Amino acid sequence: MSSPQYSYQTLLSDLSSLSKESPFFTFSSIGKSLVGRSLPLVIAGKGEKSVLYVGAHHAMESLTSLILIRFLSDYGRAIRRRESRAGIAAETLFEMRRIFVVPMLNPDGIELQQNGADPANPLTDRLNAMSGGDFRSWQANGRGVDLNHNYDAGFDAYKKKEPSLGIYGGGPTRFSGIYPESEPETAALCSFIRSRDVLLLLSLHTQGEEIYADYRGHVPPGGVAMAARMAGMSGYRVAEPEGPAASGGLKDWFILTYDRPGFTLECGKGKNPLPLSDIDDVYLRLRDVLFSCPTFL
After folding, report:
1. CA 272 to CA 270: how far, in whole Å?
2. Cβ–Cβ < 8 Å for 174, 162
3. Which run of H or E residues covers position 284?
4. What angle is formed at CA 84 by the lines to CA 78 and CA 87, rounded to 5 degrees?
5. Directed axis angle between helix 107-115 and helix 8-21, to 10°?
6. Which strands sit side by side in the sheet containing 26-32, from one edge to the other?
7. Sequence-distant contacts of 225-228: CB under 8 A, at least 24 apart
8. 231-288 pLDDT per residue, tens
9. What whole-number distance in Å separates Cα of residue 248 and Cα of residue 21?
10. Residues in Cβ contact with 160 at an 8 Å cutoff, skipping those fewer than 6 apart
């Protein structure tokens, strides 16, 4: 790689450090990836009203995992020091709201994108055929399914479009899978959401400095005002996704299923994968959004 990226092993190390620094957070997992990697979950807060933040659906977007780890570290520090963030006392936020954080949904894809295929993996020959042996532009999971097209929101219509996009099976990007939630990563996340009363969702992607708040033109109650507030805090633009990005995503499924506010944040600007050196600027632009969203409820 031309520049270092945020790896799964670094994530696990950072979570271990965070568990020692902020033992009032709860550290768990929503399940396992295709290859068997744990999909970490951090629970921050005690309140009955819950929000969910999800990072790294796509393998070139590991910066979103680091954004969420930076948020958790910042939150824990603010609690320990009895400080405020975005005008909110951190201790009060912790008592009043519960924030679920899934920092890295696609560890298998991230490992492929950063290090190539593992010779011990029985899927390696297939993956090399899909990629031509070059995983630098890989976005999918460990068997060539784009996780953010694997949700049951416009899935059938998108499936019919795949041939016109040159998609006939697994590959680096955009293949939606055989059926919705066919992948263990998306199935685990949807199962988790179904088991919890999540009232608001943020799905972090890179890049473009945009906020998507609708599914096929529909914005759930309160969503327009929330998106406008997030735009004001971050300087991002409220926009509508175009083309293949307009269906099959986590935000789309959440809105369609629950009619509750769900947002995609296209974090940072540039060409994927964004360099880790962007983290300070990207996080500072989003910090007030991450701390304020639970108070929207």
Report:
1. 7
2. yes
3. helix 279-292
4. 150
5. 130
6. 26-32, 38-45, 97-102, 49-54, 198-205, 262-266, 210-212, 237-239
7. 226/200, 226/261, 226/263, 226/293, 226/296, 227/263
8. 999 999 999 887 776 778 999 999 999 999 999 999 999 999 999 999 999 999 999 9
9. 37
10. none
Structure tokens at 85: 């963030």
Handedness of CA 147, 149, 155, 159 (dihedral sign): negative
Query: Can you tell me the distance from the alpha carbon of 60 to that of 131, in angstroms, rounded to the nearest whole number?
Result: 14
Taking the CA atoms of residue 263, residue 193, residue 67 and residue 19 in that order, the dihedral angle to the nearest 10 degrees is: 160
**Identity at 281, one-letter amino acid code:** D
pLDDT in tens, 72-84: 999 999 999 999 9
C-alpha span between 277 and 193 (Å, rounded): 32
Instruction: Please give the Cα distance from 97 to 170 (Å, whole number).
Output: 40
pTM over 0.90: yes
Please name the residue that has the structure tokens 């983290």: 279
Q: Say which residue the tokens 């600007």 belong to.
A: 269
CA of 76: how far to CAs of 61, 79, 80, 117, 291, in Å?
A: 24, 5, 6, 36, 12
Token code pair at residue 114: 């950063």
Nearest Cα neighbor of 102 from 52, 151, 141, 59 is: 52
Encode 31-70: b = buried (16+ Cβ within 10 Å), e = exposed: eebbbebbbbbbebbebebbbbbbbbbbbbbbbbbbbbbb
CA 270 to chain centre: 18
CA distance 18 to 95: 19
